[in-house]
Write a structure and sequence with these properties.
This is Alpha/beta hydrolase. It comes from Brachybacterium hainanense. One of its GO terms (molecular function) is hydrolase activity. The protein is of the alpha/beta class and 310 residues long. It has 9 helices and 8 strands. A hairpin with a 6-residue loop joins strand 1 and strand 2. 49% of the residues are buried.
Length: 310
């Protein structure tokens, strides 16, 4: 990075937080900062669960004023598995619906530390399976119309859900979009294999210390941190995964691991496209829709959706 640019970008860095202590305050702040819904979409709150009536998961459905695609985007929000919810992500999901012309369904999965792994993943898998088996619940005609999408920890959950759907049998998603996803569990600059962790893990939007806090809250049992359902890049078998678009942010400590996951998927025979947004920080999809990284990302997403399923 240009040495003159870093001090400017550091102005946008979040203050240092001990997420293990401060996560309730961060949750409240995120909800407070979320803009009020606008007239660009209609929202409907549902609860979706298994056919047997077991646990139901809240889902907020965003319908843009002009629906010009049959695809339905099943969205898993970011926030380190600890923060974020359908309320704090309402502005981002409204933008997603508007920019893609798709119905967007945001899943309000359970959060750590109150509900550590695998609770959140189970919620996301339960909703994905139910929607893929009965796509009409979200207005889709065919399971091919359902696209899994997630940002950061949500990208991690989308990747893990795809692996679970394959391993447990039954229906599976045909496409997934992973936005600057977490794909590994080691974000310590001293031990991580990724250069982006060492170069961008301090002083920017997301720090290594913050990521390590998130992992500890989500996975208090250290023995689980290399589980492929936590670190998809550790999976022994990545075959038979959905057609995948991975979008990374250049100035993000997760950049290299997201791109490495794309390489691993491609090596296993999957159709993959990886796109890096230059000059972008982690979390950029929540910026206003006129921000350059947001416009660039949606241009790439639009082209991916236009290609259709494999």
């Amino acid at each position: 990075m240009n040495r003159l640019l870093r001090p400017v970008l550091q102005l946008f860095a979040a203050p240092h937080l001990d997420m293990r202590r401060d996560y309730p305050r961060v949750r409240r702040l995120q909800r407070g900062l979320a803009a009020s819904p606008t007239a660009r979409f209609r929202a409907l709150d549902l609860r979706i669960g298994d056919a047997d009536g077991s646990r139901e998961v809240p889902v907020r459905v965003f319908r843009p004023r002009s629906v010009h695609r049959e695809d339905v985007l099943l969205f898993f929000h970011g926030g380190g598995w600890v923060t974020g919810d359908i309320s704090s992500y309402t502005p981002a999901c409204a933008t997603m619906a508007e920019q893609t012309g798709c119905v967007v369904a945001s899943v309000d999965y359970r959060l750590a530390p109150e509900h550590p792994f695998p609770a959140g993943l189970e919620d996301c898998w339960r909703v994905a399976r139910a929607i893929l088996e009965e796509p009409w619940r979200l207005g889709a005609s065919h399971l091919e119309d359902i696209v899994l999408i997630g940002d950061s920890a949500g990208g991690n959950l989308a990747a893990a859900v795809s692996l679970l759907l394959r391993d447990l049998g039954g229906v599976a998603a045909r496409r997934q979009i992973l936005l600057y996803p977490v794909t590994g569990s080691d974000h310590d600059p001293a031990t991580s294999p990724y250069r982006s962790v060492r170069e961008h893990g301090t002083g920017l939007r997301l720090t290594s210390a913050e990521m390590q806090d998130y992992v500890e809250l989500y996975l208090p049992d250290e023995a689980l941190r290399e589980d492929p359902m936590v670190a998809p890049i550790r999976a022994d078998d990545l075959a038979h995964q959905p057609k995948t678009l991975i979008i990374t942010a250049e100035l993000d400590l997760l950049c290299d691991e997201g791109e490495a996951y794309g390489e691993a998927l491609a090596a296993a025979g999957n159709a993959v496209r990886v796109h890096r947004v230059d000059g972008a920080l982690h979390g950029f999809i929540t910026l206003p829709r006129f921000a350059r990284p947001v416009r660039e990302a949606y241009g790439v997403i639009d082209a991916f959706l236009a290609e259709g399923p494999p």
